[in-house]
Amino acid sequence: MNSEKKERREAQLAKKAEAIQAYASKVVMTDDKQLTIDGRPYELLVNFHDGFDVQKLEERFSEILTKYDYIVGDMGFEQLRLHGFYQSNSKKGLPSQNIDRLQDYLFEYCNFGCAYFVLHNLDVQTQKPSAALDKELYGNEHPNNHRGRNQNKGKKRRPRRRKEKNQAFTAEKTYSVHPRRKKKAPAKQTRQNKHANQHHFVIRQK
What we know:
The protein has 206 residues and is α+β, with helices and mostly antiparallel strands. It has a domain at 2-121: 3-Layer(bba) Sandwich (Hepatocyte Growth Factor), CATH 3.50.4. Helix content is 29%, strand content 17%. It contains six helices and six strands; from the N terminus they run H-E-E-E-H-E-E-H-E-H-H-H. It has helices at 2-23, 54-60, 102-109, 130-138, 143-152, 167-170, and strands at 27-29, 34-37, 40-48, 70-76, 79-85, 116-121. Strands 1-2-3-6-4-5 form a six-stranded antiparallel beta sheet, with helices on one face. The longest helix has 22 residues, at 2-23. The relative contact order is 0.10.
């Protein structure tokens, strides 16, 4: 049973290694400081504690990093982490993404005294907007657009009523007028003689 698990584990690791190799970038060192990644030129500015590793860089590099002016790689738990930075005083991103904030990044997000390196991108690539990228990948048959057309097909759109601002104050109000009801006069009370309830006494003389 243990041998079967071991063989299955080895097969999974081999498949993972093949996938990493298929999507890995190509790093070529032209000299000690100059290199190319997928044919684009870079310069190695800092290599602290020999943190620069060509093989790990090939496995971890992504196309999204080509838009940054600088790429910082730091080692933690034997794994390479890459982070992009813009040049100083750049307005492309947040102030924390400028290269002059590198020490803040190392203090806050990296292990103390960890090995790291800094690459200077000599051929910064402009990233395409998402709409242009979707059109290039899917053409006019984008899945989201196609789904939206199918959902709205055959449905009649109701005209939207345009609400006017402050309608409650500007619109004229109409009131219905009802005739005023006459109050019924109270029944006339018969006036009783004020002497009706008086008793008459006769004084007899002795």
